Amino acid sequence: MFAYQLLHQHNTVYNGIDSKVFEQVKDFEKASEVWTRLEETYEGTTMVKSAKLYMLKYKLSNFKKKDDESILEMFYRLQVIINDLKGLSEKVKDEDFIQKFLMCLPKRFKTLRTIIFRGGLMGVSPNEVLGDVMTEDQYNDNDDDEFMKKDDDDKKKKSVAFKASSSSKSKAKKEE
Q: Long-range CB contacts (< 8 A, 24+ apart) of 60-69?
């Protein structure tokens, strides 16, 4: 019975892998050996994982919004880093993700950032915060458009042109 279970475990592992990968592991007798080789092949050695983790942590600590990047693009770029960290078994809390995202926003979001921080980050998802930011961004864009339009209308109403003319006193002085 035990031999059957062991054979079944091998078949399950072998059936779940690509034929090219099978060539790398077909000579192993123990499932643990096969599993170790598969981990090294797909995830890398412990040293490779450590280097990846170091680089991702560095990217996260130095993360900033790029000048030519939208807020949504910035959010997704940050999300990729966070997901890669989690994929390497690094514990990253949603609160840390949200805090990093909010701190990278342009200055015009200072009030929203303060409101969100005061409300606390516990129990709030990154996507909820993204929704709040996108709503605020849309509101600000509409506000700016209306403000600029109103400002332009006010300038048009207030502009006055004067025609230059000379006074009779200055003509008299020139004639003397």
A: 60/85, 60/100, 63/100, 63/104, 64/104, 65/104, 65/105, 65/106
Summarize pLDDT for 32-79 with one digit per residue, the tens.
888 888 777 776 777 888 899 999 999 999 999 999 999 999 999 999
Domain assignment present for residue 51? The answer is no
Measured CA to CA, the distance from residue 9 to residue 11 in angstroms comes to 5
Rounded CA separation 101/12 (Å): 42
Q: Which of 80, 109, 79 is nearest to 97 (CA)?
A: 79
Domain total in the chain: 1
CA distances from 3 to 12, 14, 26, 30, 31 (A): 14, 16, 18, 12, 13
DSSP structure class, residue 14: H
Assessment of whether the complete model's pTM goes beyond 0.85: no
- What is the domain extent for residue 123? 65-151
Phi and psi, residue 32, nearest 5° = -65, -35
d(CA 56, CA 143): 38
Q: Does residue 85 lie in a domain region? A: yes
d(CA 161, CA 165): 13
Of the candidates 79, 45, 89, 87, which has an alpha carbon nearest to the alpha carbon of residue 59? 79
